[in-house]
Structure formats: structure tokens, C-alpha cells
Design a protein that fits this description.
With 482 residues, this protein is an alpha/beta fold. It contains 20 helices and ten strands. InterPro entries: Bact_solute-bd_prot1, Chitin_NgcE, SBP, TAT_signal.
Length: 482
């Protein structure tokens, strides 16, 4: 969803995904069933694993110090240098180990044969448009439980476990239907409505805290030949980055939980209808940048940076991903969803923030201890601050920003998190049911509505049908909020 997602990662080209034709059924695309092939078998062949090393204070995970390490990183909005830098630290710790580094945007395509053959890498950044389906991997028991890593001493302070150094909610995101932790989300993404303080100031406007104010700002922009909004029209699963927390703000977090749980008629909740109608009004009043449905995420970000539109639903990776076209005086910032009206169940400031860039250690990895040790290094202060400085994004390590001067977008993300306090939502549908969320809800439904080809009522009915089909599909493992 970095991805992810930073997410992840996150991210997403983060995400050269799914063409509209594919989502509409005009051409075939890999779906959950296809992805299931990548997780075939019951997993686990300890005979293929390297012998463990000697457990010491310096080597708490008992890494075999001479065993090779095989790493595959998603090459998206965060690039891959941060991983290479952490790998250099690994080599210093274990000079006898060879580290193989590969980067790709074709995660599922390239790694499916390796999973099928029982020779997956030791550590994978499973992000981007072609990521492997998390729910399927967990359901097929293809991953290593990372609680061993989480209970190990943290890289900087042996008195603290790794789990005690992470941001709230990160561990829980990696759990599905038990206490095992299958995924470690490395980036920490703040989602919302991104804007330029400079461009709003030119309109004598501030970020609109109510929907009425949002419409007024968009109308003022329209009169000057500027669009209110643009978004990744070819990848419209970006729209939920601001739409989902808007739904929660209106109706309460239980509305999103019911959606995640595939409850019957969850999408027919009044809060969903109200949020969809508000967004549809942006289209109906001509506040969407012309041609947006045909834009990639990069093209929409560039148009936004060029001042052609004021607002962009996105994640905090956008600062790094769009930096080549961002003016120096842009003053990038993120806003939480505007309040619909006084009956909203949650206060202004409610937003979606969660782990991104999902890292996994396959169960059949030859060197799982090495994969976890590299993650332990990455979750140290040095690697975390390196990531923050190089890609303008937070990590799941809590406290990595201490002493750093943050760029505008990242500083704004920190401020938004502080304002939100406990009012942070984390829709799980994006990692529990990847194909449903991206291809169906995002591209084939919400994208069609925002392009004016479906009404909100039609869109809700279509999404509910998609959700019901997934709920009834016995080949898709189901998950529930605890």
C-alpha cells in the first residue's frame, strides 16, 4: 500500500496497477484465485533452512553469521536505497554473509514461481500494485510468525523489546485471526487530503474544516480556472484514502468495521451514502480537474504540483514521490476529512493513519533469522532516521523524528497525527481483501462514480454486491475485527 502502504504501501507505483479495462472485465487480470497459486502448498520445509547461529547479546536472533541473505524490495515511491543502507549495516554485523538485493515493481509476478518452487527470498517488501495477496499468504500458512523478532531486544536499547519501540497499532496490523504476527509494516503512512498552503493562500483561503467550506473554496478556485480536486484516475483506489475516514467521521468507526467484516448491507449505511453523495457533488459541480479519470498517480500529482488543482487524496509518500515537480514554495500539507455537518460522530481531525510497506519473511525462507535481523536493524534509530530523511516518510519506529528537521509534508503529517490523537482509523479491507478493495471497490465502482458514469446509489449497490460475493466465496479466507 508503499508503500505501503507506504500501503505501502502502501503504497500504488507505488503502484502501476490495474488498467480500467481490466477492472471492468474487458481483459483478464490476476485476482485472489490467481494469487492463491502463489501460496500453494502447506508451507514449511525446515530441512531447507540454514543452521541457526549462536545466540548472543549481539546476535539475539541466533543468525547464522556466514549464511547468505536474499532480499527483494518493492521499487516504488520509497525507492530501495533505504534497504541497501540497512543491508550495509547487516554486512558490518556479519562480514561473512553475502547479501543478495533485488528490486522490482512486479512482486507477485516474479515471486510466485519462487513460492511455488519452495525457494522464496528471506525478506520481501510485499508492496505495490502487483503485491501478493496478504490474506491468501496468511491463510495458506506461507509466512513466518514475526513474534520472535518482536520479542527480541531492540537494536538500540536491549532493555526494550522491538515491539515496545513501535507506533500504536503496527503490531496489530500484522495479525489476522490470532496472536501470530505475519507482517511488519515498516513505513507509517498518514492518509488524507493533500494541499499547498501557498496555493490556498493565493485564494485567501485556509484548509476547509467543513464540507460547505470545501465547496466554497472549490467554487472560488473554479472562477480562477483552477480545479478543486484531482486524483489518480487510473488508480482510483486512492480515493478511499480520504473517503474512508470521511465515512468514519460521519457515522463512527463501527461503520468501517462492518465494511471490513463483510457484514450484510454494511455499504448501505447512511454514513456511506452521505459521504458518496458529497464526493459526487465535486464531480457534479465541475470541481474535478478535467481529464482526471485518465491520469496516473504521477500525472495527477504533477498537475497538483503545477497548481492545476487544489486538493489531492493521497498518502504521505507523496512528498517523496512527487518531489521532482514540487515548487520550492509549495508548502505541502495534509488535511483530515472536512466535517459533513454537526451530526458527525467523530471530531474534525479524524484521519486514517497506519503502517505501510508490508515486510514478510516466508515460511520456506532459507535464512528466516537473517530476514528478521535485517528488519531489527531497519527498526533501529539510525536506519529509521535514514529512511525519514531520504524519503520524507515516517517509519513504524516511534521516536525516529527526534532531533530531525522535517520537510513540510512530513511536518504536517506529524501535526495531523497529534491533532487526531485517538481519532485515528485504520480500514483493514485494504490488506484483508486486496482484490476486492483495489480492482472492484476502487476501480470498478468509486472510480466510475467520480468519472460521472455511475450515481452514488448505483455505486453503493455495486460495491455491496462485490462485498457479498467475496463474503460467499469459500476460497477467500475471512477475517474479523477482534
Amino acid at each position: 500500500m508503499g508503500s505501503t502502504p507506504e500501503f505501502s504501501r502502501r503504497a500504488f507505483s507505488r503502484r502501476d496497477l490495474i488498467k480500467r479495462a481490466a477492472a471492468l472485465g474487458l481483459i483478464a487480470v490476476p485476482t485472489v484465485s490467481a494469487l492463491s497459486a502463489c501460496a500453494s502448498g502447506d508451507g514449511g520445509d525446515g530441512d531447507k533452512q540454514v543452521d541457526k547461529g549462536r545466540k548472543t547479546d549481539r546476535n539475539p536472533l541466533a543468525v547464522n553469521e556466514s549464511a547468505p541473505l536474499d532480499v527483494v524490495i518493492f521499487d516504488g515511491g520509497f525507492g530501495q536505497q533505504y534497504a541497501k543502507d540497512a543491508e550495509a549495516e547487516y554486512r558490518k554485523a556479519f562480514p561473512g554473509a553475502q547479501v543478495k538485493h533485488a528490486a522490482t515493481q512486479e512482486i507477485q509476478t516474479q515471486l510466485q514461481p519462487r513460492f511455488n518452487g519452495g525457494t522464496p527470498p528471506d525478506l520481501i517488501d510485499n508492496s505495490g500494485a502487483k503485491q501478493m495477496d496478504m490474506g491468501t499468504l496468511v491463510g495458506k500458512k506461507q509466512l513466518t510468525d514475526l513474534n520472535t523478532l518482536l520479542d527480541a531486544p531492540s537494536y538500540d536499547d536491549p532493555a526494550k523489546k522491538v515491539r515496545d519501540t513501535l507506533r500504536p497499532g503496527v503490531v496489530e496490523m500484522g495479525q489476522f485471526d490470532g496472536n501470530e504476527t505475519w507482517i511488519l509494516y515498516y513505513a507509517y503512512t498518514v492518509y488524507g487530503v493533500w494541499y499547498s498552503k501557498t496555493n490556498l493562500q493565493k485564494l485567501d483561503a485556509q484548509y476547509p474544516e467543513t464540507w460547505d467550506e470545501m465547496l466554497k473554496v472549490c467554487e472560488a478556485a473554479k472562477k480562477k480556472g483552477i480545479a478543486g480536486w484531482t486524483y489518480a484516475g487510473k488508480h482510483p483506489y486512492y480515493l478511499p484514502f480520504s473517503l474512508y475516514p470521511f465515512i468514519a467521521k460521519i457515522g463512527g468507526v463501527e461503520v468501517l468495521n462492518n465494511i471490513d467484516n463483510l457484514e450484510p448491507n454494511a455499504w448501505k449505511a447512511p454514513a456511506v451514502k452521505a459521504a458518496f453523495e458529497a464526493y459526487y457533488e465535486l464531480y457534479r459541480k465541475g470541481y474535478i480537474l478535467q481529464g482526471t479519470p485518465g491520469l496516473t498517480h504521477i500525472e495527477s500529482q504533477t498537475a497538483w504540483n503545477e497548481g492545476k488543482a487544489l486538493f489531492l487524496p493521497n498518502g504521505s509518500w507523496v512528498e517523496n514521490e512527487s518531489k521532482k515537480t514540487t515548487p520550492q514554495d509549495f508548502r505541502m500539507a495534509v488535511g483530515a476529512p472536512s466535517s459533513l455537518d454537526k451530526s458527525d460522530k467523530m471530531p474534525f481531525g479524524t484521519l486514517w493513519a497506519s503502517g505501510g510497506e508490508p515486510f514478510i519473511v516466508p515460511k520456506n525462507a532459507k535464512n528466516p533469522q537473517g530476514g528478521m535481523e535485517l528488519l531489527r536493524i531497519m527498526l533501529g534509530r539510525k536506519s529509521s532516521q535514514n529512511f525519514i530523511k531520504s524519503v520524507s516518510s515516517l517509519t513504524s519506529f516511534n521516536g525516529g523524528t527526534d532531533g530531525l528537521t522535517l520537510p513540510p509534508g512530513l511536518a504536517s503529517s506529524q501535526e495531523a497525527l497529534a491533532k487526531a490523537g485517538k481519532n485515528v482509523v485504520n480500514p483493514r479491507i485494504q490488506d484483508w481483501y486486496v482484490a476486492l478493495q483495489k480492482e472492484k471497490i476502487g476501480v470498478a465502482a468509486i472510480g466510475e462514480m467520480m468519472a460521472g458514469r455511475m450515481t452514488p446509489d448505483e455505486t453503493i449497490a455495486k460495491i455491496q454486491r462485490f462485498a457479498d460475493e467475496t463474503a460467499k466465496d469459500s476460497s477467500v479466507k475471512k477475517y474479523k475485527h477482534k
